[in-house]
Write a structure and sequence with these properties.
This protein is an alpha/beta fold and 252 residues long. 50% of the residues lie in helices and 14% in strands. One of its GO terms (cellular component) is mitochondrion.
Length: 252
């Protein structure tokens, strides 16, 4: 079904500390092999905040060698998230800056409240995005605009984020402060009826295909399609269509 991973480090605005990154890595690792998981929604349980980025108070106490090691671990964890075989949705109901936005960029789909604030602001601190931001942002909104946002450390709201393609959906915030989360859950429910094997290989085909030329991408699609042909789910889909009933997929 739908798995919800909630960030809850309220005293530090969900800033990415060593311990939080370690916990995230364990959670993502557990999801990799769980065949019951169909979609993962990432949200914050702290009102007004998605993730404020790196824990700068902790960072200030680190030796330079520790900083490099920590950023590598954070990058690896966010890469693990990006490589989850099932659809992932980031529900951004509050501020997502630096590593917080990089976390959201690693998800397949982003939904945000119109009042949410997003930006890769690392250049203000004389560093650069180090957990995938310089790579995923231009792949999401285009090279020129990504450079502009990173060079200026500009922060955009949900409406502007939608207009530039940074997020897929923008919603008005509600009194509970969880409008993006509710929209993300609605999206996740749209994914549930589909064939689990098909969802996994569709994601694989898209992710791998976007990094190569069209001819190679079509070969990847062919190889991924071939994985669905011998499945029981494919036969069930045809049978359900013939019998005019909802299919009962088992991921086999």
């Amino acid at each position: 079904g739908i798995v919800v991973l909630g960030l809850n480090r309220s005293h530090a605005k969900n800033a990415l500390s060593k311990n939080l990154v370690k916990m995230m890595s364990k959670a993502v690792d557990a999801l990799k092999s769980d065949k019951k998981v169909r979609t993962v929604v990432f949200r914050s349980e702290v009102p007004g905040i998605f993730c404020a980025g790196a824990d700068l108070k902790e960072r200030a106490k680190m030796h330079s060698s520790e900083v490099s090691s920590f950023v590598s671990r954070a990058r690896a964890t966010i890469n693990e998230l990006a490589n989850l075989p099932v659809p992932t949705i980031a529900a951004i109901d509050g501020t997502a800056l630096g590593g917080g936005l990089e976390l959201a960029l690693a998800c397949d789909i982003r939904v945000a409240a119109s009042s949410a604030k997003m930006g890769l602001v690392e250049t203000k601190l004389a560093i650069i995005p180090g957990a995938g931001g310089t790579q995923r942002l231009p792949r999401t909104i285009g090279v020129s605009l990504a450079k502009e946002l990173i060079f200026s450390a500009r922060i955009v709201d949900g409406e502007e984020a939608k207009s530039i393609g940074l997020i897929s959906h923008v919603v008005e915030q509600n009194e509970a402060g969880d409008a993006a989360y509710r929209r993300a859950l609605a999206l996740a429910r749209e994914f549930l009826p589909q064939g689990p094997v098909a969802m996994r290989v569709a994601k694989l085909a898209i992710n791998q295909g976007m990094e190569v030329d069209l001819v190679t991408g079509l070969a990847i699609e062919e190889a991924c399609y071939a994985q669905t042909i011998p499945t029981k789910d494919r036969i069930e889909g045809l049978l359900a269509f013939k019998e005019k009933r909802p299919p009962r997929y088992k991921g086999e």
